[in-house]
Design a protein that fits this description.
Oligomer: single chain
Strand order of the largest sheet: 1-22-21-20
Number of helices: 20
Distance between the termini: 84 Å
Radius of gyration: 27 Å
Strand content: 15-25%
Shape: globular
């Protein structure tokens, strides 16, 4: 046996070096997503920045640039409040050095995972490392992108190792800690309860409660509620990034592509039946997680095969996966190496290798990884399916169906209130995942959008940095915007005809959010929470100022600060009767109405108020976000952004007629 393990070690070391070193070296010398997302969040957490701002795409992108990551798109959605926690110790280092430390830690985490998995599989750590290298596609992307899943594999392996050695509380505690960092282990709470492992339940709840209380102490109660009310519901449905993209090989994306129409991201579904999606998504998710529990014996014995099977069920039910996620399948494959036939162990290894291989775009539309994972799930439970009993299964299906119907009706009601049911989208472009911050003039609409390496204007105007928050006079020229580059923000002017680009504020001022009068003669912006006029200086207003918009004659502004909208002339509230946190004011060109964004329970909607009577009405609805209103030149309509039916915070533009 010792000679066999020696041979494996001699094979594992050079093969691992041959395959892993090049990708490790690329990760060592370059900072690429997704590491900057975790790193930036750790830097912000160390500075005790507001957690709710982490989930604002453009604010977070600005902070990424400030912390040293230049032209690269990033964001913190859909991470938990504590996903960045392991990066806090290295957040004081420059991004590249921090990533290098993280990669070295990854090697340690991988080695420790191999040692623990080898003990559980009763084999050598060298063989487990060979299995890890066999999933090269996943391992490579983890190193190259500085991803999280080697660390998550270590936590899950440690938790299972403790559970199998009857250290139930410790195992549950580790699983709870992993859950608060990434939600993949959350279903284990139900597994522990089903198996009557109450010490494991207690350990998991203790870890969740401890880290939860720490998150409340660090970020505040409201910020954590913001995550639970605003981010988690959409993330649990994979309403992030492009929720229709077939490369995200999950049942959720497959069903959404089949049944839900989206003009830019999925204009031609197989059948337009959104209610079917709203029902089947929770039904299949709950069924996949309940099936192993119903098929397992409800005793107090935790076995390797059960845990391995349940891990596959978790991945199958997950709303969001990618090739780097499937590295965690190394754990169930290792568990299957003992206690199962050699034939099944090789079949599971083959499935693991295929799942870790990056998917070619030409094949993605068939969702092959969904079907492969489903096959692995069905076959892994072959020894347990015979334990199913008709009555418990029918009762469970009835409960799951009832819960799914309730969810479907709630989502359908929300969909009927969303902008797509009442207004027409504008400026559509296939596959565009982001269009926001419209600025309207006689020359058309200028808006923020995402390019290949950063934020651009109107999908075509790119600059050396990220272009945010365009503002235009009535004539449409020049275009004023915020340019984020080299760790600073400046207000720029750009003349589309001559292509002349000019900086209007110094880098040290970090000026943001330009607002220009209709005539173009006065420009306001925000710096350090104060409102300033170019060439005039700072205005005395409530602080911190977040947004500003000129009244038609250009003599005073509507500003948002402290959750309300004020008139800069006298400091009086402009919309005192609208409950909620107010922001993003826009005064109609005729001066008669005020459009603004109102946030309640983390969800933003557009409101319109008559300035003379203070009568107001909510223009948009649904359990999703509509914001950034801009008036048309004749005051007859609003252009606004909405992420309804799309990725969280990744909207398209609509027009609402208001005659």
């Amino acid at each position: 046996m010792s000679s066999r393990r020696g041979v494996l070690a001699w094979i594992a070391v050079p093969l691992s070096g041959l395959l892993v070193v090049p990708s490790f070296h690329r990760g060592w010398t370059r900072v690429e997503t997704d590491f900057p997302n975790y790193y930036t969040a750790a830097v912000l957490a160390r500075k005790h920045m507001p957690l709710d701002r982490f989930y604002d795409w453009t604010w977070f992108q600005r902070q990424m640039n400030y912390t040293g990551t230049e032209r690269q798109l990033g964001g913190y959605i859909p991470q938990t409040p504590w996903t960045m926690l392991p990066l806090l110790p290295v957040s004081g280092l420059p991004p590249q050095n921090a990533k290098q430390v993280w990669l070295l830690l990854d090697l340690i985490f991988l080695a420790l995972s191999a040692v623990l998995a080898a003990q559980m599989a009763e084999t050598s750590a060298a063989l487990i490392l060979l299995l890890a290298v066999a999933g090269y596609g996943s391992l490579e992307s983890n190193f190259l992108l500085g991803q999280y899943y080697i660390f998550l594999l270590f936590l899950m392996t440690s938790g299972v190792w403790c559970l199998l050695r009857r250290r139930a509380f410790t195992g549950g505690f580790v699983m709870g800690a992993a859950c608060m960092l990434k939600l993949y282990t959350a279903p284990f709470l139900f597994y522990f309860a089903w198996k009557r492992q109450w010490r494991a339940v207690a350990g998991m709840l203790a870890a969740c409660a401890g880290l939860g209380l720490l998150a409340v102490a660090w970020f505040g109660w409201d910020a954590n509620l913001f995550y639970l009310n605003y981010v988690f519901p959409r993330a649990s449905e994979n309403a992030i990034l492009d929720p229709f993209h077939p490369a995200t090989g999950t049942f959720t994306n497959l069903l959404r592509r089949m049944f839900v129409n989206e003009p830019e991201l999925n204009p031609h579904p197989l059948i337009e039946a959104p209610f079917a999606f709203f029902f089947l998504r929770p039904f299949l998710t709950m069924a996949v997680l309940l099936a192993p529990l119903l098929a397992m014996r409800r005793d107090r014995e935790i076995t390797k095969n059960e845990i391995a099977w349940f891990l596959v069920a978790i991945l199958l039910a997950s709303p969001n996966t990618a090739s780097y996620v499937f590295l965690v399948l190394l754990l169930p494959v290792a568990l299957w190496m003992s206690g199962t036939s050699r034939r099944w162990a090789f079949a599971a290894l083959g499935a693991y290798i295929l799942l870790c291989v990056p998917l070619r775009p030409a094949w993605s539309w068939m969702f092959p990884k969904v079907w492969l994972l489903l096959g692995l799930f069905a076959w892994a439970g072959r020894a347990h399916w015979r334990n199913l009993r008709v009555r418990p299964v029918l009762a469970a299906l009835a409960l799951v169906a009832a819960a799914s119907l309730w969810s479907a009706f709630a989502h359908q009601r929300s969909r009927e209130r969303e902008p797509a049911s009442h207004f027409q989208p504008v400026l559509l472009q296939p596959s565009s995942i982001y269009a926001s911050r419209p600025a309207v003039s006689s020359a058309g609409i200028v808006f923020e959008s995402m390019g290949a390496g950063g934020y651009v204007l109107s999908r075509t105007m790119g600059f050396d940095g990220h272009a945010f928050h365009p503002a235009v006079p009535a004539s449409g020229s020049p275009i004023f915007f915020e340019l984020v580059s080299r760790g600073h923000s400046r207000i720029m002017s750009f003349e589309p005809r001559t292509k002349v680009l000019s900086a209007l504020t110094p880098e040290a001022l970090n000026a943001t959010h330009p607002a220009v009068t209709a005539s173009g003669d006065r420009l306001a912006f925000i710096a350090g929470g104060t409102l300033r006029i170019l060439g005039q200086g700072e205005l005395a207003t409530p602080r911190p100022v977040e947004e500003a918009a000129w009244f038609p004659l250009g003599r005073h502004l509507a500003i948002s600060a402290r959750g309300a909208v004020y008139d800069s002339a006298d400091g009086k509230p402009l919309a005192p009767g609208i409950p909620g946190e107010q922001g993003e004011p826009a005064v109609s060109p005729d001066g008669m109405r005020l459009a603004l964004t109102v946030t309640r329970r983390g969800i933003r909607h557009v409101w319109v108020e008559e300035l003379s009577t203070k009568a107001a009405r909510e223009l948009t609805g649904g359990d999703c976000n509509s914001y950034a209103p801009a008036w048309e030149a004749d005051s007859g309509g609003l252009i606004f952004a909405s992420d309804c039916g799309r990725g969280l915070g990744l909207p398209r533009l609509y027009r609402a007629p208001l005659r």
